[in-house]
Amino acid sequence: MKKILLLVCLACVSAYGQKFDNLALTPPMGWNSWNKFADKVNEDLIRQTADAMVSSGMKDAGYEYINIDDTWEGERDSQGFIQTDPRKFPSGMKALADYVHAKGLKLGIYSDAGAKTCGGKPASRGHEYQDALTYAQWGIDYLKYDWCGCEDLNAKGAYTTMRDALHAAGRPIVFSICEWGSNKPWEWAGEVGNLWRTTGDIHPCFDCKEDHGTWYSWGVLQILDQQEGLRKYAGPGHWNDPDMLEVGNGMTANEDRAHFSMWCMLAAPLISGNDLRHMSKETSEILLNKDVIAVDQDKLGIEGFRYSSDSILEVWFKPLADGDWAMCVLNRSTRPQKVRFDWKNKKVSDDLSKRETRFDTTVYRVRNLWTRRDLGTTEETLNAELPGHDVLMLRLNKQ
Ligand code: GLA
């Protein structure tokens, strides 16, 4: 009897106080309904998006999660279990998960640590263990967990409760912490979740902020600037999340390219937020560029850093596995700019990865990742012209 009790106790202890191992070892890639569809989400959209994820080549490029954001929720049943909104999801969530899994993809869902979601639907406060169990039974693979109506909660405590509930339910679920950076999640969330939002919501503009009365949403440059100082907190299994992509949602192709490139330099989760069923050629060429995606997904898992800036042109470097570097020149202005970079007189050193390269002694081959052209080596000075709100993104390959 004592032995059985001891075993039961050990099982309890191992179910608590930890997150799942081996999830999100590279930044998660997928799609989320919110940026484009907001509350217009339903099972037809999710099925069609899963189909499009495969037929567009996005699945082959590494996108995996189909994430349903807010307003999928129905009422709780008489025992407190959450149900899907039957008008939007008449076949139920389990059937949808089966459909998505049959395509070789994964399904994500959304809730909130408060009593109601940001869209006013029932949320998980006081129901964390029930909800985690329900998600596991449905076959959910990813949970984005929001922070509306949580003013009286301790963030680390609230997110840890849900982490423990997910772990106790037993199905590995990527845990996406979405408290907008309000409580410095980078300082505590490495042990709690797999990614954490570092800012308020993104807005599909390159350089603006949008006033919503009590809060702002942010353009690409505004979010980029809020990542300062955070790179040391990220790594395999625990990523800074500068919010979902707005590629294909109204910015120019140059701006979309710059946005996507900078998110890859940041080793950010690549969660597309556009209508995958109707993508322009420009949009799909951006989202499907495997060389740029490889920078994001590099197995070193180290974020890039701003190497230099004159407030118009910024040069970023990201250390990659096998001694390579990614380099990205960002034009923050709307006007074309001339770029000149004489590698031979430059040294790049990074305390975090302990990598240092002196280009006078080490020669790299240079490849432009957007034109897919080889540009020679770092022995020659780089000369280029960069359109407004665009990037020059290079991979430096050690010879
Ligand atoms: C918050 C989140 C968004 C989205 C909405 C849904 O604003 O930050 O990403 O999930 O809620 O209501």
E-strand count: 22
Strands in their spatial order, largest beta sheet: 11-8-7-6-5-2-1-12
Give the integer mean of the pLDDT values.
Answer: 96
Name of the level-1 CATH class of the largest domain:
Alpha Beta
Strand content of the residues, in percent?
25-35%
Return the domain count.
2
Which structural class best describes the helix and strand composition?
A: alpha/beta
Uncertain runs are none
Bound molecules: alpha-D-galactopyranose
Distance between the termini: 65 Å
Q: What's the CATH superfamily of the largest domain, by name? A: Aldolase class I
CATH topology of the largest domain: TIM Barrel
Largest sheet: 8 strands, parallel
Bin the helical content: 25-40%
General shape: globular
Number of H/I helices: 11
Question: If classified by CATH, what would the architecture of the largest domain be?
Answer: Alpha-Beta Barrel
Radius of gyration: 22 Å
Note the topology.
Blueprint: H1 2-15, E1 29-32, H2 34-37, H3 43-55, H4 58-61, E2 65-67, E3 73-76, E4 82-84, H5 92-102, E5 106-112, H6 128-138, E6 142-146, H7 155-169, E7 174-177, E8 195-197, E9 209-211, E10 216-218, H8 220-225, E11 239-241, H9 253-265, E12 270-272, H10 281-287, H11 290-296, E13 305-309, E14 313-319, E15 325-331, E16 337-341, E17 347-350, E18 355-358, E19 364-368, E20 373-377, E21 382-386, E22 391-398
Parallel strand pairs: 1-2, 1-12, 2-5, 5-6, 6-7, 7-8, 8-11
Antiparallel strand pairs: 3-4, 9-10, 13-14, 14-15, 15-22, 16-21, 17-18, 19-20, 19-22
Helix pairs in contact: 3-5, 6-7, 9-10, 9-11
Bound molecules: alpha-D-galactopyranose (GLA).
Alpha-D-galactopyranose binds at residues 34, 69-70, 117-119, 146, 178, 201.
